[in-house]
C-alpha cells in the first residue's frame, strides 16, 4: 500500500515534469521568447516614465506659507529652461497630502521676508516623497540652486529626513497598476501559447490520458507560467523597490496577482483552439479586466462607478498593491480586497479544472 508521503512525492514529481517541460518548450518558441523580452522592455519603460528624468525641467512645489510672505504662488520660468510651479496649501498636513504627484513640499517660515530683505539666507524646510529618499542630499542642492536663481539671492532648502509616504486614499504615480499590467500580460502571452502548441502536437491529449490528473496538469501549467511571471515581477520589484513600505504585503499582492493572471491565461488556453481566436479574445480580456483596474483609482470617478469597478478582481489586486506602497494598511480595506481577489482566483481555477476534466472524457 502506498503511503501518504509517497503519494505526495509522486504527485509533485508529475507536476514538476509537466512544469519543467513547459518551461523549456517556451524557450523553444520564437513568439513566446519575443513576448517575454517585450514584457521585460515594457517593465523597464514603466519604470522610466515613473521616474524623474534628466530632461524633465518642471518642478512642481506644494507650499505651506506660515507667515503669508510676499512669495508669489505662480509659474516661474528660469533662465536654464527649468520652471517652478507653486501651489499654496493651508496647512502642513494638506501640503503632505498633495505631494502625490509633486516633487517638493516647502514650508515658508514666518520670518522669510525679513531674512530675505536683510540679504540673509532664508532656510526653507523641504519634504520629498519616500521614493526619492536616497537622493535627499542631491535634491537639497538642486532645489536650493533653483530657488536661489529665482529669488536672486541665496536660499537653502533643508530636507533631512522629511520623507512623505502617501496615505492609502491619496492618488500617486500609478506604479501599483504597473505590476498588474506586467504580470497579467506575461501570463497571457506565455501560458496560452504553450497550451495551443500542445494541442497542435497532440501532447495535451497524451497528458490527459496519462496517469496525470486534470488537477496535476493545471498545477503543472500554472507553475510553468509562474516561472515566467517571476521574471517580470522580480524585475518590477528590483526597479521599484524604493516605493515599497510594506514588503510582506507587497509580496502577498504579487503572489495573488500572479495566481489570478495565470488562472485567466489557463482559461484562455483550455477554451481557445487556434491563434486567431487567441488574438480576438485578447481585446475584450483587456477591456474587461485591465483597463477598469487603471480607471478605478482615478479621483474623478463617480461613487457608483467606483463601487462597481471595485468588485473586479483586478481592481482589488491593484488596491492591495497600492496599500503595500502606502503609509498605513487599513485592515478592513485589505481584507475586503483580499476576499475579492482570492475568491475570484478560486473560481477561475475551478473553471480550468472543470474544462480539463471534460476534455479527459
Describe the structure using short key phrases.
361 residues; 13 helices; 63% helix
**What is the domain tally?**
2
- Largest beta-sheet characterization: 7 strands, mixed
How far the N terminus sits from the C terminus, by CA atoms, comes to: 28 Å
Q: Return residue spans where pLDDT drops below 50 for at least 5 consecutive residues.
A: none
Describe the structure.
The protein is α/β, with parallel strands linked by helices and 361 residues long. The protein folds into 2 domains: 237 residues, no CATH class; 107 residues, no CATH class. The chain is 63% helix and 10% strand. It contains 13 helices and 7 strands. Strands 1, 2, 3, 4, 5, 6 and 7 form a 7-stranded mixed beta sheet that branches. α1 packs across α8, α2 runs antiparallel to α6 and α2 packs parallel to α8. The chain starts with a helix and ends with a helix. The mean pLDDT is 84.
